[in-house]
């Protein structure tokens, strides 16, 4: 039923675009016949809107993975760089939230661990919406920041790293992933917060360990233990599905946390704020000098370049 609804929506989109094109052609013919230059702005605006929609559909065609249409779970971890790296995670955290808002995704914070002095040590976000995983999977890897650190009184340039992990969220009734209760160890603890704010006095935070694999997930973003447990199970299901896929590629260590070192030489993208402004993706060589726009969530060009390259390789 869900597949039928999806296909019906695609057919509806096709007819909508066809109608928009017909309307533009009619408007163009009217402008030519009546020699009415006042219609030019409306024509240009309509053509631009249609082109943007077609570009989006062209990108969507590149999504062919079995879980590309699923929701996405994005986890950020601070790497080398201490407080500076934790501040870098907070910048990426905002960037991805802004990206989600721009694309109409429902974005939720599933887990959040504040930094010791500033920033964020780690955070987990969920993105609910069509093709969320298909697009955001392009962000998986190590992200490198170069800037003059606001935490360095000497005003020196610092390099920091953060890892971004992206996995597809699976439906609770997914037949591929069934988790027997006896395979779970559930611990509860008091949630922590930045500066002592919004800290629960009850043990509402939840940590779940999947005993057969050793995978550990936790959530403390909600005040309710029931909600945090539900978040943990969602993340665990997604990780187990990813583990199942990785087993076929002999990459189990990546899922269990023994990931590539979050440091120099392993990054997929560099964000340079000093001595010049540049964001460059090392997988595709896609780059832009508009660092402000990128940090405000405009990362579509990098996602598109990655999808185009991976599709060409297949």
From TrEMBL:
One of its GO terms (cellular component) is cytoplasm. It holds the Pfam family PCRF. Keywords: Cytoplasm, Methylation, Protein biosynthesis. The modification N5-methylglutamine is found at residue 197. It is found in: Cytoplasm. GO terms for molecular function: translation release factor activity, codon specific. Signal peptide: none annotated. PROSITE patterns: RF_PROK_I (PS00745). Methylated by PrmC. Methylation increases the termination efficiency of RF2. Residues 190-206 form the Prokaryotic-type class I peptide chain release factors domain. SUPFAM superfamilies: Release factor. InterPro entries: PCRF, Pep_chain_release_fac_I, Pep_chain_release_fac_I_sf, PrfB. HAMAP family: Rel_fac_2 (MF_00094). Belongs to the prokaryotic/mitochondrial release factor family. NCBIfam families: prfB (TIGR00020). Peptide chain release factor 2 directs the termination of translation in response to the peptide chain termination codons UGA and UAA. This is Peptide chain release factor 2. The lineage of its organism: Bacteria, Bacillati, Bacillota, Clostridia, Eubacteriales. The gene is prfB.
């Amino acid at each position: 039923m869900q597949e039928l609804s999806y296909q019906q929506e695609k057919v509806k989109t096709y007819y909508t675009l066809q109608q928009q094109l017909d309307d533009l052609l009619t408007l163009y013919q009217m402008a030519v016949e009546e020699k009415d230059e006042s219609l030019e702005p409306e024509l240009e605006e309509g053509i631009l809107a249609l082109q943007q929609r077609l570009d989006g559909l062209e990108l969507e065609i590149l999504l062919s993975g079995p879980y590309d249409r699923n929701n996405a779970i994005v986890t950020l971890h601070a790497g080398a760089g201490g407080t500076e790296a934790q501040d870098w995670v907070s910048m990426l955290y905002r960037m991805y939230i802004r990206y989600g808002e721009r694309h109409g995704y429902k974005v939720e914070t599933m887990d959040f661990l504040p930094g010791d002095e500033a920033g964020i040590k780690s955070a987990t976000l969920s993105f609910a919406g069509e093709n969320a995983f298909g697009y955001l999977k392009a962000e998986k890897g190590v992200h490198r920041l170069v800037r003059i650190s606001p935490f360095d009184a000497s005003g020196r340039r610092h390099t920091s790293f953060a890892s971004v992990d992206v996995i597809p969220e699976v439906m609770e009734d997914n037949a591929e992933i069934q988790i027997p209760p006896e395979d779970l160890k559930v611990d509860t603890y008091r949630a922590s917060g930045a500066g002592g704010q919004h800290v629960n006095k009850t043990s509402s935070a939840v940590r779940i360990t999947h005993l057969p694999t050793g995978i550990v997930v936790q959530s403390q973003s909600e005040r309710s233990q029931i909600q945090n447990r539900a978040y943990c199970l969602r993340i665990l299901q997604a990780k187990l599905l990813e583990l199942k896929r990785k087993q076929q590629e002999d990459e189990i260590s990546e899922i269990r946390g023994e990931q590539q070192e979050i440091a120099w030489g392993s990054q997929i993208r560099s964000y340079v704020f000093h001595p010049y402004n540049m964001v460059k993706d090392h997988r595709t060589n896609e780059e832009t000098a508009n660092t402000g726009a990128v940090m405000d969530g405009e990362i579509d060009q990098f996602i598109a370049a990655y999808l185009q390259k991976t599709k060409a390789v297949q």
